[in-house]
Amino acid sequence: MKSAAIRVEGLGKRYRVGARRRPGTLRDVVADAVRAPLRRRTLAAASGAEWHWALREISFELAPGRVLGIVGGNGAGKSTLLKILSRITEPTEGRAEVRGRVGSLLEVGTGFHSELTGRENVFLSGAILGMRRAEIVRRFDEIVEFAEVGRFLDTPIKHYSSGMQMRLAFAVAAHLEPEILLVDEVLAVGDAAFQRKCLGKMSHVAGEGRTVLFVSHNMAAVQALCDSAVWLREGRIVAAGGPGQVVSTYLQSSAVGVADRCWSDPAGAPGNERIRFHRARVAPAEDAGSPVITTRTPFTVELEYWDLRGGEPLAVALHLFNQEGTLIFHAGSAAGGGGERGVRGLYRDSCRVPGDLLNDGIHRIEVNVFAGEEVVFRLEDLLTFDVLDSPERRGSWFGKWVGAVRPLLEWRTELIQRAGAAPAPR
Amino acid sequence: MAVSAPHPALHAEAPVLVIQPSRGWVPLRLEELWAYRELLYFFTWRIIKVRYKQTVLGAGWAVAQPLLTMLVFTVFFGRLAKVPSDGYPYAIFSLAALVPWTFFANALTQASNSLVDNERLLTKVYFPRLLLPTASVVAGLLDLAISFLVLLALLPLYGIAPSWRVAVVPLLVAFVVLVALGVGLWLAAVNVQYRDVRHVTPFLIQVWLFVTPVAYPSSLVPERWRGLYGVNPMAGVVEGFRWALLGSGSTSPALLGVSGAMVAVILVSGLYYFRRMERTFADVV
Predict the structure, then answer these.
(1) Closest Cα of chain A to B18: distance in Å?
(2) Which residues contact A14 (CB under 8 A, 6 or more apart)?
(3) Residue predicted with more confidence, A401 or B177
(4) A13 to chain B, closest Cα gap in Å
(5) Which residue among A23, A87, A100 places its CB closest to the CB of B19?
(6) What is the value of pTM for the model shown?
């Protein structure tokens, strides 16, 4: 049996937290020493609170040539794990065995110096990432061609556009030839065409029998590129297995896609003498078969409110904004709904938003309550909810889908005229 | 960090790297420096390349620094204060000391900031951390060579013919490199935790300049105190340069022995301290 390329046993990393013990100055140390007797007591009392386990009891094995994806929210310990395996920081407990030459890509452009030229930076960055000089010389032309910076090779990179710097940086990284590659979120760079190229390179690397550890927020990329996946939460492994299964478990548990606000005490609820809110909720539609809202899931927005006076019928209008503050749509209950209105009582207005409409990201709902033409109440931050990126691949694109919305449109392609059948217009 | 194999590329078959917590004092693993010698070269090259970018004088600064200091010293110490200079023209007398001193002061400053200035590298990629302060010191050698050549060229102007003693200079240079590296390692490692070092270093260098016979001859110091110069290795270096180039002064084997032992202590303790603190660099920098 071939031995594992990476074997991790009970790995843990503890950090000291709290502002007091951050990289201090000598003065703090002296001050602390003066207060020493006092400090020892408080330290003992609060010793549990001063430490934070960023990673705990991590064990797994990765066979040579396999690609492992690591998913999890911010602060779950993903980057800490990569840093330990690439020897940047030391574990507090446990051990890891790594068999083979390791290359780690924790950021794009490590070692770049803005005063140096593109050519110089290729050598510098290559050497820092672990390439031998001879290796860099041998692959130099390939790297430059990949980066598409040809003409500016001897210009200091501070004159490059940020896109060009990224391309050059990734080009160097993509030509590393370690047996084991540790990668943290590098797909998030560059324009669409370049990203496609990088991705091609990545799957090529994976195909060459390289062992890869891949940390990403991008579920589609994890599913497409990895053989297996691990989900980290609060520094611990909570699920491991096939990427499809782990990704869907992860998405289901992160209930960030659902928002529900209920005001049981009417006095504290938003409203005025005419209207008072009772509940506001965003949830996947019941027939959607998904516990979370992804870009593909239809969902409902439900508003329950008291009409305290009756009279002119009330109607609500939703304004949905994306993270950039762009108003995506306006939708009012006055347009439809039916039902009786204008009498005192508790109402529920619900609205179904179809799937394949919104783009992924945080969205905010603002509500305006109308009595006829008049706005009687407005709440800007009614609800905030997250639309998750759908794990289903759409073609070969893994990056952020551009645009305010992500509709699924119908396309049809026809060949109208075969070339050569008639003279083409000039 | 405990690691069981040197640079993987040295072994054709897959080497096994064991990563686990280290405790207490850790081995120096200097062989790893050798395995990473190419990176040492690139770090050194980067410092040299970047140092004089967007300056008008460029490498001229390597010469201007000691020359201008010599000018100031000559006017104030030589002319006004009438500081003796062992019978040599004060200008060349001070320049012979300023050439190694300028190297030392610059190397120490660069080395002490080398880790903090490369924070991004420390937190994003692995390499033996010793490379950074080492490269800072080594990069200064180019400036030293340039200013030394200028010094050699000036000697005949003062009617001094370089003798066979010049052959000792490489040994003295090796000595000053070790002093700068030893002290630099301490400062660099402490600097990661306590940024006070950034403020302390210039002050330290200033005081050190005065306790080293750069602006004055060691013969100015009363005989019974002169033994203390052994504790200051830079005194030996500076006097050594004068001896090699001008033929002035004298030095005793006992003094050299004490200086040598001093450097060994600073360097070895600096190495061990550095390696011990290394494991937390990425976390606290």
Answers:
(1) 5
(2) A51, A52, A53, A54, A92, A93
(3) B177
(4) 10
(5) A87
(6) 0.76
Sheet containing strand A275-284, edge to edge, reads A259-262, A275-284, A299-307, A345-353
Q: Per residue in B135-191, pLDDT tens?
A: 999 999 999 999 999 999 999 999 888 888 899 999 999 999 999 999 999 999 999
Does the beta-carbon distance from A88 to B16 stay under 8 Å?
Answer: no
Under the banding of pLDDT at 50, 70 and 90, the label for residue A26 is low
- The mean pLDDT of chain A is 82
The answer, yes or no, to whether residue B267 has pLDDT greater than 90, is yes
Q: Least CA distance to B52: which residue of chain A?
A: A115
Answer yes or no: do B126 and A127 touch at CB < 8 A.
no
Across the interface, of B49, B125, B196, the residue whose CB is closest to A120 is B49
Q: Which of B17, B22, B125 sits opposite A98 (nearest CB)?
A: B17
- Output the 3-class SS for A329-389: EEEEHHHCCCCCCCCCEEEEEEEEECCCCECCEEEEEEEEEEECCEEEEEEEEEEEEEEEC
Q: How far is the C-alpha of A145 from the C-alpha of A394, rounded, in Å?
A: 28
On the question of pLDDT at A342 being above 90, the answer is no
CA distance A94 to A13: 9
3-state SS string over B146-192? HHHHHHHHHHHHHCCCCCHHHHHHHHHHHHHHHHHHHHHHHHHHHHH
Residue A115 CB-density burial (10 A; 0-12 exposed, 13-18 middle, 19+ buried) = middle
Q: Which residue type does A266 have?
A: P
Subunit contact A111:B21, Cβ cutoff 8 A: no
Whole-number pLDDT of residue A188: 56
What pLDDT does B12 receive?
A: 42
φ, ψ of residue A365 to 5 degrees: the values are: -110, 130
Residues on chain A bordering chain B, Cβ-to-Cβ distance under 8 angstroms: 15, 23-27, 29, 83-102, 104, 106-107, 110-111, 113, 115-116, 120, 123-124, 127-129, 132-133, 179
User: Which one of A27, A53, A89 would you mutate to disrupt binding with B, by most B Cβ within 10 Å of its Cβ?
Assistant: A89
Q: Is B222 exposed, middle or buried (0-12, 13-18, 19+ CB in 10 A)?
A: exposed
What's the pLDDT at A187?
Answer: 57
**A229/chain B closest Cα distance in angstroms:** 22
Residue B209 predicted with pLDDT over 80: yes
DSSP at A287: G
- How far A195 CA lies from chain B's nearest CA (Å)? 22
Displacement of CA A157 from its chain's centroid (Å): 29
DSSP count for chain B of H helices, then E strands: 10, 1
B162 interfaces chain A, CB cutoff of 8 Å: no
Cα–Cα distance for residue pair B278/A92, rounded to 1 Å? 14
Buried b (16+ CB within 10 A) or exposed e, B56-68: eeeeebbbebbbe
- Count chain A–chain B contacts defined by CB atoms under 8 A: 114
Report how far Cα B178 is from the mean position of its chain's Cα atoms: 7
Tokens of residue A234, six digits: 């609060």
Tell me what ipTM this predicted complex has. Answer: 0.83
